[in-house]
Amino acid sequence: MSRLAAWGFGAFVLSIAGVALVALDVPAKVGLAAGEAVGEAGFRVKSVDVQGIRQMDPKPVYAIALDQQTTAMPLVDVSAIRKRLLDYGWVKDARVSRRFPDTLVIDIVERKPAALWQDDNRLSLIDAEGVVLDRVPVSRMPDLPLLIGKGANAQAVPLDRLLEKTPALKAQLVSANWVGGRRWDLSFQSGETVLLPEGDAAATSALVKFAKMDKSAGLLGRGILRFDLRIPGKMTVRLPREPGEAIVPEPVSES
């Protein structure tokens, strides 16, 4: 057998051996053994340094970080830890890194609470994008606007865009009721409720007109119970009444 043929045969044997080793998962096992050897040399996770937390409960972060098959530093899957953290409502972003010899460093970017969302009997804290952060007991409700109704949290961004057009009204908002998955009823600190029409454009137009009328005529704070803006160009109001009195006065045209 020539030398060239011998080299060729040797390469063939090595390739077959390599395929066999991969099939038997030998490289992975060697890597695990090497990682554990590094761990035995003192490079094991002994502490978790969590940074960036201001409001959320840090316990779930520590629990996720320490829920590992091994504590050997080279074998800790920092990508998997980050992925699990991003499934937690409070966490907008997370960075996970190793600080040798024995510390995992987790930098959390928290979501900011923007409102409360009530769906049936469940009360949840949500951010400005409508992401659910945590459940909230009624006894510990923070002073935030309340969004009410099925799917209301998913409408948080369009609602915020709507209210940005009327900052004076936004500052007085107490709750927003998402009615029938179509439109909003807005309740204000002075006790009145404003019924908006369906559709972003129609709701924006109606609320901007109402804000201008409120600024010029002081509609809010006069004891009126409800302003119905659902009919284009008209506003129907409901006044407090005694038994037997008319419930709704004649509608008036908006000027």
Keywords:
single chain; 255 residues; alpha/beta; 10-stranded mixed β-sheet; 3-stranded mixed β-sheet; 13 strands; elongated
In spatial order, strands of the major sheet run 6-5-4-7-8-9-10-11-12-13
Question: In percent, how much strand structure appears in the residues?
Answer: 25-35%
Give the class from helix and strand content and strand pairing: alpha/beta
Shape summary: elongated
Total helix count? Answer: 7
> How many distinct beta strands?
13
Termini distance? 104 Å
**Helix share, percent:** 25-40%
The main β sheet shows up as: 10 strands, mixed
> Radius of gyration, Cα only, in angstroms?
31 Å
Q: Quote the average pLDDT.
A: 83
Low-confidence stretches: 6-31
H-E order? HHEHHEEEEEEHHEEEHEEE
Can you give me a brief rundown of this structure?
By secondary structure, the protein is of the alpha/beta class.
